[in-house]
Amino acid sequence: MAESSTSVRLAESRAIDGRFGLLRGGYVGTFLRNWQGLIGLSLIVTFSLLAIFAPVLAPSDPQEINLAHILAPPAWSDSDRGFGLLGTDNLGRDILSRVIHGSRVSLLVGISATLIGLFVGVPMGLIAGYKGRPLDDIITRFADIQSAIPFLVLLIAILTFIGGGLLNVVIFLGLSGWIGYARLVRGETLSIRTRDFVISARAVGASEARIMFHHILPNVVAPIIIAATLSFGGMILTESALSFLGIGVSASTPTWGRMLAESRQDILSAFGPSLFPGVAIVAVVLGANWTGDWLRDVLDPRLRGSR
Prior knowledge:
- This protein has 307 residues and is mainly alpha-helical.
- It has one domain (2-299): MetI-like fold (Orthogonal Bundle), CATH 1.10.3720.
- It is built from 14 helices and no strands.
């Protein structure tokens, strides 16, 4: 019995070690040679620091109205009329301050909604893949039904009915994102559950919960991380779309999507109010996607030597 337990731990350790080779020097070198991954991670870190230190870095109150400087161009583009590093919007509010504070909402929604999707989808995928029928059929059919409904249309209908707000946006965005994780983990679990270390753990009397969360889950972490990174950008993009439509977070909170909506009528006379929040959205989403692509290349052994 002791020998069987030892063999299970050794087999599991080798499997986990293969998944977590990311910290080895060779992978760090791969990261430094991958310019997209380097830029992507730099963008995410930069906007994270902006969000954390927004009250310190923002030059003024993002809600402060200055009617004397409505639609002022950036200071560097017009020395006579310029006001503020990135100019002002149609109420004279500083665009740079609003972009910096808007990063807090976008990153908070992206991170929180992604975590909710993970906490719901990963256990569902483990149960469906390991337990099999009938739980597998129930979870899979439920995911198919939810996938058949247009996601954004459903989200707009729900938030219009119950009202927006940061908490509602985070919860419903998170609950809508569990399907991808569940399907990913289910597929990986179906493959891993037939491996020797899982069979050995089952033979020595390990509980199903221990097998799923202690033996199988660590070997599925790599694809989960990749999926979460890519989903993070999608959550930010969806939150911006909801704020643009006016059903996202409160109107008193600066968000990139609301900044774009408020600047529509002045887009021909002033480029700053629409350009800079749009660039921020593109930068964060692109950074998340490039970081996810790099993680996929590093953690997938079939792609590891391709770059």
